[in-house]
Amino acid sequence: MVDFGVGILGTGKYLPDKILTNGDLEKMVDTSDEWIVRRTGMKKRHLLDDNTPSYMMGAEAARLAIEDASLTPMDIDLIIVSTETPDYLTPSMSCLIQKDINAENAAAFDVNAACTGFVYALTIARQFIQTGYYNHILIVANEGLSRIVDWESRNTCVLFGDAAGAVVLGKVDKEYGIRESYLASFGNLGHNLTIPCCYISEEDRQKRGAGKERVIWQDGSEVFTFAVRSMAECVKTVVEKANITIEDVDLIIPHQANLRIINGAAKRLGVEDDKISVILQETGNISSASVPVALDMENKKGRLKKGDTVVLVAFGGGLTCGSILLTWGK
Description:
- Helices cover about 30% and strands about 25% of the residues.
- The protein is of the alpha/beta class.
- The strands form four sheets. Strands 1-7-6-4-5 form a five-stranded mixed beta sheet, sandwiched between helices. A four-stranded mixed beta sheet has the order 8-13-12-11, with helices on both faces.
- Helix 4 (about 95-100) links the parallel strand 4 (about 80) and strand 5 (about 105-110).
- The longest helix has 22 residues, at about 220-240.
């Protein structure tokens, strides 16, 4: 029987310096600040410089998370990177980050569950530590969404930004750490959100403008409906698995896709606003990086207290969704 918990030892994030405001977008497409805020809750997003590889964001977030855990890169046994926007298909983002931070003792691989990727990566990493296979695992969510956006389509270009978030996972006292997780996939709905890579179907080609075969496309109404329902159900499921009630949860950190989605899920759960972390007004939708970036922000400003019950929840392309329930131990 395992006599220890698996918890978060350190957190880190990186947001590029370049900022794109709603006012900037008004000059690019047919939109307005009022329309964007009303529809999404977003006010600005951070964009990576065109000449900078995306993995540099993840490397910086990784360094900060390792430092916050009072470790060195040489202490890391495994690196898992969540991304749907890799710089290369090979080498993987995890190997690029491994090289950059000099984590010479670490194995490395990528996970792609779109915006749910960080939750998937946490669940995977927990198993490695529980079995004793690894001691310290670095998880990085690294997303450069500005590079796959159609900047002439207001349906998507107002939504997305670039960022990376990271955590170090390791052994903690058994009353702390991850208590339950839940993962789900709905491949039959995958056509509602697509980013082609080495192949594109004729159907997906027709959804995009000429010469824009590799940009993100989504059916907004279908994704919205799935998001509200799945986020609420994921929270309920993981809370029930832990044999507690929603009233026992101190903070929910959701994927930051859209304020209306977050509010819709909160209404279904009967949760007050002060129990939900919202950062999207500052970042836009940063895919799988949104949960760890929000987690780092809450950690750094002292909102998380030792012993708090925290739920991380996300949905994304695939379509996928998932949740983690943990007892904060830092």
